[in-house]
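Still learning. Show one?

>
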Amino acid sequence: MSREQAVAHALNVFDDEGGGYFAELAECVAIPTESQRPDSLPELQRYLSDAMTPRFEALGYDCRIYENPVEGCGPVLLASRIEGDDLPTAIGYGHGDVILGQEGEWANDRSPWTLSFEGDRIYGRGTADNKGQHLAHILALRAVLATRGKLGFNSKFIIEMGEENGSKGFQEVIAQNRDDFAADFYFASDGPRADIARPNISLGNRGCCNFDLVVDLREGGHHSGNWGGLLASPGIILSHAIASIVDGRGKILVDAWRPEGIPDSVFAALKGVERDAGPDAPEIDDDWGEPGFSRSEKVSAWNSFEILALKIGNPEKPLNAVPPSARARCQLRHVVETSSDRIVADLRAHLDAHGFQAVRIEEPPAANQGLFKAARTNPDHPWATWLKAAVDRGGKGDCAVVPCSGGSNVTGIIEAELGIPFSWLPMSYMGCSQHAPDEHIVKPLMRNGMALIAGVYWDLGSSDMGYRP
């Protein structure tokens, strides 16, 4: 028995078009687990009870489903296989919920709930985000067990059913059952590679804070001929307030939002790391964002501010009137050096200092709050260096290290509640259309990812090269 045999076993399952990886993925995709729909709870529960629990139990895992303390939000599955008190414990993660299927908007009459194939692309809601990725972990664990007869480490695996709805209640589930979820390190897959041509591990995620900027001056609009020049314009005030936050090329101007104290290891890891989204992706604007930073540094070592939506008056039927109000839905994606607890307060101080007391900062509706804390395991942590070496063994020494991915997810919750080092090995790419019609994965990337993951799990259970915290 060997690492090569375990990897070959995993790849045989991937390549089995009759009943392997894609047949199992089709079963998972067919369950419409749209956590953003209020009536989706039965489907979220069915994914855990029918699709996940039997797969884990067949591998010798004990499974427990925790009800979510937040009414109407999806449950959480914890699968555990404990092989010895003297062995390290890995904890994995996946989310079985997906965003809205957007039926009728997919090309070529594709159904979001039916796996469909077009060359190397495999379409279906959840293929990339995240059913396809956590299923690959399950099958890699299965390959190691089939080859060695044991894992050689303790394994726990979380399947959450509310990540696309803000992970409401997930932190409470872990906090109330912390001993159940206790582990030594975290290893999972989600999101895209930084560079489609090169595997990478990601050691965290940027945080996310959504808020509204509102200028609400009076009731109703007033004739712009009679009142223009006499009444303050909400649109103009809001536009200038935004211009004080970020300049015309995307550079952040709020001093407190410009991170300080970023470790040298973060910038060192990003040297030579490219960002390439692959074919059909938008062309990157290299003159946008923080001047002097590389593409990877802008995403993985810095903050970015965005206007998600902007409304002044009625754009479809504009009136010749001074509008009474203006509103912008805004977002800050931020690294750990920017405290999430201070984001709004620091912005308030900035706006006041620039004379924009008329601009209110409001919390958006619950469905758009998008609050996630930033978290990062630094690249020089022993878990990060061990994992890179393990991936290098399967990828011929080509693994990049991304200190944190640009998106936001549950990493901050894992850090806050379990206090363990964490890492991700993404198997998708930035052009995969996640959160949009025609979501898909690409066969070569997923096949390579499954081989790398199987190799990592094999090494974790190895007596001579396994990671020992």
The mean pLDDT is 95. DSSP finds 14 helices and 19 strands in the chain. Residues 427 and 446 are 6 Å apart (CA to CA). The chain has two domains: 3-205+374-460, 207-252+303-368.
